[in-house]
Amino acid sequence: MAQSPSHSIKTETGWRPDLRAPVVIALIALLGVQLLLALGVSLSESHMTAVAPRTPLADFKPDQVEQVAIAGDKDAESLTLSRTPEGRWVLSDLADFPADGAKVDRLLTQLAEIKRPLPIATSEEARKRFKVADSDFERRVVLRGKNGPLTTLVFGESGGFRRLFGRPAEDPAVYELPLAISDISNRRDDWLARDQLQIDGTKIAKIGVSDWTLIKDKDDWTLEGRDSAVDQDAASQLAMKVANLAYRGVLGTKEDPAYDQQTPKLVLKIDLDDGKSRTYRISQAKESEDYVLKDTDRPYYFKLSKYDLEGLLDLKVDSLLVTPAKAEQAETATEADKPQSAPEQEVTTDEAQVPAPPPAQAETATTQRTPENPRDTAEDAASEPSPHAETTPYPTPAETAPTEMPAPN
To answer: What's the angle, vertex CA 265, arms to CA 262 and CA 267, rounded to 5?
Structure first.
């Protein structure tokens, strides 16, 4: 028996036919591409995982650091601080000029003690926005030890008072750190030691210029070759000014015609009691209000302001001498400081003849009774006889009664 054609065709039902639909196949292919892309990104940026917080931001110890390199953005100034074998810090790119060692140690301690907080961002766009990208930053600090680099830190914009965005160079996450941008300055003048022109004032034996020289003989100052009396206070103030001379910066070691050192404003020679001496050539830089000081025994050119040289540039020998006006002023001040005795009172003849009152009367006259209770005052006044009672007594009622008349007979 032949089968009907309707039974020769099998009807397919369910979800399998739908999988072979062109639209479904296209969506599956698109999903596969997305998965592959996600896998590739995760493999290429596996370092994007944030480091656990509260760990040290940079793993180093301050005494391991032998060099600190601080760079600014693009063409900004940069500097290198190096530790000498004696343990002192110097500016390597300024002919090893002494640096402020306490400030360098303080920065290293700050960086070593910072704990890594929770990141505020991890994307490349965020690193550019906060200026902590590899090629766009405010400061880049490289710490090196004896065996090479210890860590590299990148710092960017400030988020407020002592709040600075930064990160380790190998960490893509951005952190908000308790630092100020001034703590990591890239200006050499901010790291200079400020005591290189200072002298122990007690050791100064001579101070000389072109036309006069002050000499210290024990505790007194005299002018060499002159008999003029020296104002000791003015000489001592001059010595103190010379001993504590300050400067604004260091210009380097290379002579520049703009310094105008060939025509100095002042040449100051200082002799010490240990045989050492210093000679300062002070000139004004051309087209500038700054002054340049060169110590003949050292290679550095110091930058000074007019304020630093106040009292030196216009110093005249007459200001160091005792003038009649100064002597009169000093004598007046001395007389004013003397204790003045009370003036004696003259006693007239009449006053001398007046006898002193008896002790009782004097005590009565000078002693006043101060009652504690107003009522007691009234009672005491009533009970005490009046001083007039002795001279003009009032009659009693018996004395004033009328006399009895005798009866008529």
So the answer is: 80
Q: How far apart are CA 13 and CA 1, in angstroms?
A: 28
pLDDT in tens, 67-108: 999 999 888 899 999 999 999 999 999 999 999 999 999 999
Task: Kindly give, in sequence order, each residue whose CB lies less than 8 Å from that of residue 154, ignoring residues fewer than 6 positions away.
Answer: 132, 133, 134, 137, 139, 140, 141, 166, 167, 168, 169
Give yes or no for a contact between 140 and 106, defined as CB atoms under 8 angstroms apart.
no
Phi-psi region of 131 (alpha: psi -120 to 50; beta: other; left: phi over 0): left
pLDDT the model gives residue 25: 77
Q: How many helices (H) and strands (E) does the chain have?
A: 11, 16
pTM above 0.70, yes or no: no
CB 303 within 8 A of CB 248: yes
pLDDT digits (tens, 9 = 90+) for 315-373: 899 999 998 665 566 566 555 555 665 555 554 545 445 455 554 444 444 444 444 44
Average pLDDT over residues 49-63: 79
Helix (H) / strand (E) containing 335: helix 324-337
Structure tokens at 269: 């020679």
Cα separation, 78 vs 184, whole angstroms: 11
Is residue 155 a contact partner of residue 178, using CB atoms and an 8 Å limit? no
Whole-angstrom Cα distance, residue 162 to residue 181?
8
Is-contact 176 119, C-beta < 8 A? no
State the chain's maximal CA–CA distance in angstroms: 206
CA distance 226 to 126: 75
Angstrom distance (rounded) from CA 253 to CA 280: 15
**Sequence letter at residue 94:** L
Sequence-distant (6+) residues with CB within 8 A of 334 are: none
